[in-house]
Design a protein that fits this description.
Largest sheet: 5 strands, antiparallel
Mean pLDDT: 90
Shape: elongated
Strand content: 15-25%
Helix content: 40-55%
Distance between the termini: 92 Å
Bound molecules: iron/sulfur cluster
Radius of gyration: 31 Å
Low-confidence stretches: none
Length: 463
């Protein structure tokens, strides 16, 4: 036994949270966490919320707006479709602003509500707690039964239960990977891929199997260590949280001194630890490993009910709220972050709305200089690339604005399908009289239905 900072005599294990992750023993080996199945109001709310998140994850690739995907991360086609709007590689600034706004939103949310995202909306937690863990509860039972099964001898029942569980885990991992894949390919391309023989897409098939194997390994073995040891977001809590952040907290003023016959409300039943998926003791204060899943709130409320005490010994509150009895989620930090978020998001909306409907790039063909022709003209060869960002097919016309010259485009008429890219080559002829220097600027206009929609300047080289 040792004394803790409050002078209580506690066993060595209770103080070890300061020295090492709770799921490691003295030798550094992993201690398997057998979390008790949560039950209560918060768990019900979390379950319902997770259904919506899962539905969103599964349904999004199938949602179309005017025949176009709602979200498609088409890496092979170098375009992202987000909420029906298409973003090409040329829209990096807009995507960067969107990403920055999202990061700022996460920071603001974390400063205010701690690691709520982790317990409620993070795919890792949703899949572990609401999919894989539920399969485990169904086949192997709650924590005590699971522990007895794992520690017990190999029996027919054990082999059957373990085989069934792992088979289901593998199937779910495969389904997860393929749903994930749909976000990148869309349902039509995915159907095309899976209806082809494996040999036609061997590398893609192997990647799909590897990703599924990774998911299976994470959810069957690695589990909560993603949140406690790998995820960088968890490690940012120390700088993001302050005494006004509302997180899952233990009311030490009310709970201490703890013990079955002590004055405090905490009877030291350790049920809040038993139910915790990361096995921490929330009574030690806010810790990196706490994902704000609220399982301990539900569990402690049940204990309070059975001991005829008020619920809320563990609740959503801030350190200031517990210490001083009042709290406010607004403070200087989250006000400042809100202003930055507002500026970033406004800038994102402005750049999104003001971006041109097409994006043109015209460059002289690399490696070619100029050509002197018998009719006294000088010609340069150019590569042209036009991205149509609209949802309509655009008939385009291409004119030279700065000089009196002739454009000869390879191929026939210029018509670009919606959300597609047009690539071609053309030759520009200028009469010798118009050449004012060996490298001069020429300006092109891109017209649609006789209306100029974009201009572009390129260089023209001559003798
Ligand atoms: S569940 Fe509640 S009463 Fe039991 S140990 Fe945890 S905080 Fe104390
Ligand atoms: S301490 Fe409570 S809220 Fe935090 S992870 Fe454990 S059970 Fe969830």
């Amino acid at each position: 036994m040792q004394r803790d900072p409050r002078g209580r005599l506690v066993n060595k294990e209770e103080l070890s949270f300061r020295d090492r992750p709770i799921n490691l023993d003295d030798s550094g080996s992993r201690k398997w966490v057998y979390a008790k199945k949560p039950k209560g109001k918060w768990y019900r709310r979390r379950t319902i919320f997770s259904w919506f998140v899962l539905l969103f994850f599964i349904a999004v690739p199938f949602i179309k707006i005017n025949g176009n995907p709602f979200i498609l991360l088409d890496i092979a086609g170098r375009k992202f479709i987000l909420f029906g709007a298409i973003f090409w590689a040329q829209d990096t600034l807009i995507l960067a602003l969107l990403m920055l706004s999202f990061i700022m939103f996460i920071i603001l949310f974390t400063v205010t509500f701690g690691r709520l995202w982790c317990g409620w909306a993070c795919p890792q937690t949703i899949f572990l707690e609401m999919v894989f863990r539920k399969v485990e509860y169904l086949i192997e039972g709650d924590y005590r039964k699971r522990q007895a099964l794992d520690k017990g001898p190999i029996t027919g029942e054990k082999v059957l239960k373990k085989s069934l569980k792992h088979l289901l885990f593998m199937l779910i991992s495969l389904a997860m990977t393929n749903t994930f894949l749909l976000w990148f390919t869309g349902p039509e391309k995915w159907l095309e891929l899976i209806s082809q023989p494996i040999s036609a897409n061997l590398s893609g098939f192997l990647i799909m199997l590897l990703v599924s194997a990774f998911f299976y390994w994470v959810y069957s073995w690695f589990r909560e260590q993603i949140c406690t040891m790998v995820c960088p977001y968890g490690r940012m809590q120390g700088v993001l949280l302050d005494s006004k952040s509302v997180v899952v907290s233990y009311d030490y003023k009310r709970g201490e001194p703890r013990g079955p016959k002590s004055e405090g409300d905490c009877i030291d039943c350790r049920q809040c630890i038993a139910v915790c998926p990361t096995a921490i003791d929330i009574r030690n204060g806010t810790q990196l490993e706490c994902i704000n899943c609220t399982a301990c709130i539900d569990q402690c409320n049940q204990v309070m009910l059975s001991t005829k005490k008020d619920p809320g010994l563990i609740r959503f509150d801030s350190e200031m709220g517990i210490r001083e009895g009042h709290t406010s989620i607004w403070n200087a930090r989250n006000r400042a972050y809100s202003v930055v978020l507002l500026i970033l998001f406004s800038f994102f909306i402005y750049t999104l709305l003001s971006r041109p409907v097409i994006e043109t790039t015209i460059l002289r063909t690399p490696g070619l200089l100029y050509q002197e022709n018998p009719d006294q003209s000088i010609s340069n060869v150019y590569n042209i690339k036009i991205v149509n960002k609209t949802h309509e097919t655009l008939p385009l016309e291409f004119r030279l604005l700065s000089h009196d010259g002739e454009i000869r485009m390879a191929g026939g008429k210029m018509e670009i399908n919606d959300q597609s890219m047009f690539e071609s080559t053309f030759i520009l002829y200028l009469h010798r009289d118009q050449i004012t220097s060996d490298r001069m600027e020429v300006e092109f206009g891109i017209y649609s239905n006789n209306e100029i929609i974009e201009t572009y300047k390129a260089s023209f080289v001559g003798p």
